[in-house]
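Supplementary material to the annual report.
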Amino acid sequence: MSTRPKTSVWTVSLLLGCLFSFLAFVETLTWRIDLTEDQRYTISPATLSLLGQLEDRLQVKLYFNEDIEGAEHLMPARKDLVNLLEEVARYSKGRMVLETVDPTVDLVAARDAEHVGVVPITVTDREVGGVSMESLYQGLEMRYQDRSEVIPFLVPGEFEFAFSVRLAALLRENRPVLGFFSREPALSPPMPGLPQKASPNRIFEKLRERLGSRYAIRDYRTASADAPFDRDLSALVVARPEEVTEEEQEQLTAYLQDGGNILIFMDHEVIDPSQGFTVTPLQTGMEEWLSLWGLKVHPHWVYDQQAQVLPVGEQFVTLPDGRRARNVITMPYGLFPMLTGDALSRGHVVTSELDRVAMMWAHPISYKQTVPGLSAENLLRSSEKSWALPPDVNVSMSRSNLELLQAMASTKGPPSRFALGTILSGAFAEGAKPGVLVVLGDADLFHNRSLPQGSENAIFGVNLLDWLSQEDELIALRTRGRRSRELRDFYQESIEIQGGLAGTDVENRVIDRRAQKARISAQRTMAWSNIFFPPLLILLAAFGHFAVRRSQSRVPFVRGDSR
Amino acid sequence: MYNILLFAKRELRVFVDTPVGYVVLAVFPATMAALFFLAGSFFAESEATLRNFFTWMPIAMALLVPALTMRMWSEEIREGTEELLLTWPIRLRELVLGKFLGALSLLFLTLLATAMIPMTVAYLGDVDGGVVLAGYCGTFLLGAVCASLGLLLSSLTRNQIVAWLSSAAILIALNLLGLAATARSIPPSLAHALETLDLGLHFYSMSRGVIDAADLLFFLGLTLFFLVCNGLVLERRLRR
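Predicted assembly:
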C-alpha cells in the first residue's frame, strides 16, 4: 500500500487543525478600529467612567435565546449586541459578571424573566404547512448591591445608552430630583395593587415618564414663602405657566439667584385641535418676570416655510386602467416650524447631534441685556424664510386657510429668522450664584400628543434637562448615530428654483408637478450614469488597448531590432 | 519577489489582452450600480449610505472572483503549460503567490470600477467616509479569500466551468453557514463554530465601519490556508 495518500490525509488534517485552532484563537482577540464618524461601536468615555465607579460586583443577566429560526435577519445585530456586552464586561476589569440564560429552554429562567419584566417579542416563522410563532428574548437584568434595573428588550443601536443610564441609576443611591411646576391636576393618590392613573389633563405626563427613568419627579402646583422650590432640585421645569402669582415669581427669582437652573416652555394660548382649533388666551403672568432678565416671549406666531407637512384633503384620480385612486393632498403648515440643520444650535451639546425639533404654534423670543454679566445664546431658531403673524389669525388646518396664511405671511415684508429657544446663564443678581434660565417659545412641543415613541422632541427635552442638571455626559451617548444622512432633496430644490410655493392653487399644482418631474429625472440620471459611465470608460480603454496592439502587430519584424 | 511580480504581471496581461476581461470589468460595476440604484431602495430610503451596496457584496464576490481565477490554473493544465511552469527554476510558493497577486490586482481593478457609486452617494449627501473605507477593506479581504479558494479549485480541474461553479458554490455555502447556525436542530457549540466560519458575518462586521482584529485575521488566515492547500496540490502534482 502506498504511503502517499496517508501522508496527504495527515497533511490536510494537520492544516485543518491549525486553521481551526487559529480561528478559535482569533475569536478571542479584542483589538479593533472604529472608523465610523461618531465612534458608534466604541464604548464611550461616559460608560467607561461609570464602570470605573463600580465598587462592588455588577451582576448582569442576559435573557437571550440562541435559537432564532424564523428571525435569521436579526442575527448580525444580535451578534453586535453580545460583542458590545462582552466589551463592556472586559472594560469593567472583572467587576461586571455576565451570565446568559435562555428562557425558551430553561423554565427557571423563563419564570425569572417574567418576574423581573423581561418580555419576549413574538416572531412569526413560516413553515411548510403553516405558520409558527416563536418567542424572542433579548432583555437584560442588572443587579448592584441591593438595587436592580431592567432593560425589557435591548435594541443594539441604543444598547449603550440604555445600559449606561441604568448603570448611572444603580450607582446613585438617591436619584436626582426634577421639579415640575405647572397647573396640571395632581395625580390621584396611589392605591395598593392598582397602577396610578394620570388624568388626561396632565398634558406633560409623557415627558415626565421619559424623565422618570433617570430622575425623581417632584410636582409643584403652587409656590410660596412657606413652600418654596426645594434647593435640592437639580433643575426646575416651569411647564406652560398659567397665572403665575407675584409670590411664585419671587420664589422663582430666589431659586434662580440661589444658583438654580430653570427651564420654561410657555404659550400665550391653548389651542385644542379636537375642538375645531379653538384658541383660548392664556394669562401666563410671566411677562414681567421675564422682562427682569431682558427676555420677551411675543404673542405673535412664527410662520416658517420650513414646516411640518400635513394632509389637507384628498382627491380622486382615474388611472389609465380605469380604476379610481385616492390621492392625499399634503401642504406645509407654516405655524408648525420644523427646525433642522442650523436652526438647531450646532455648537451646543443639547442640540449638536439632534436631527430635528418639531414646534407647534411657536412664539418668537427677543432678548435685550438688562442684567450685566448674563450671557445669552439662541438654542433654537426658525429658518431664514420666516415671518411673524399676529395672534388673531385663524389657525385651522384647512387647505384654504393654509393658502391664506401663506399669502398673509408673504405680505409681511422680507422674511427673517426668529429665536424660539434662548439660554441665559450667569449670575442673575450681583453677588448671586450663577444659574441658568432656558426659555422656549412653545409648550406644545412637549405635549403628550407631540411625544410618540422615538420622538426627537422627547430627546431634545431630556437632553435639555440632563444639561441643566449638569448630567450632560450621557447626552452625546443618547444622540449618537441619530443624525440622519439625508440625500439632496431635488424636489425642494426645484421648488426653490421656481420661486417657492407662494402662488395660487393652480400654480402650486403646476410647480409641484414640475418639481416631481425634476426629482425623478435627477434620480434617473444619477442611476443610469452610474450604470453606463464606468463600463463605457472601460470599453473605451479596451478599444484603445486593442488599437495599439493592432498597430504594433503591423510593424514588420526586422532581425536585430531590439524593439 | 521579482518572480512573484513577474507572474502577477503575466496574469494581468493575459486578462487585459482578452475582450472577456474587459467585459467582466465592465459588467460588474454596471450590475452593482443597477442593484444599488434601481433594484434597491436607495432613493426611497433617502439616506446617504452604502449599506445596501455592501449587502450585495458577499454574493457578488462569490460569483465574480471565481470567474477571475477560474482559468488561472485550469487553463495551464488544459494547454499542458502547467508542467512547464512547475519545472521552471522558481519556488512553488512564488508561483502560487504570483497567481494570487495577479488575481488580487484584477480584483482591485474591478472594485476601482465601482468607485463612482460611493462618489455619487457622497455628492448626494453626507456619507460616512469611514464606513465606506471599512466596507471596501472588507470587500477586498473577502475577495482575497474568494481568490485563494478559486485558485485552489482551479488547480484541481482542467475545466474552467467546473472550477467556477465549485468555487462559487462553496463560497455561497460559506456565506450561509450563519443562517444554518440558527436552526433549532443545531447544538449551540456547533452553531457557534458555524457562525465563526461564516464569511458573511465577518464581512458584515467590517461593512458597518469597524475593522476588528478577529475579522481581519479570519480573512487573512483563511486566505493563507487556501494558498497553502494550493501549493500542496501543485507540489503533489510535481512529485507525480
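The CA atoms of residues 189 and 397 of chain A lie 39 Å apart.
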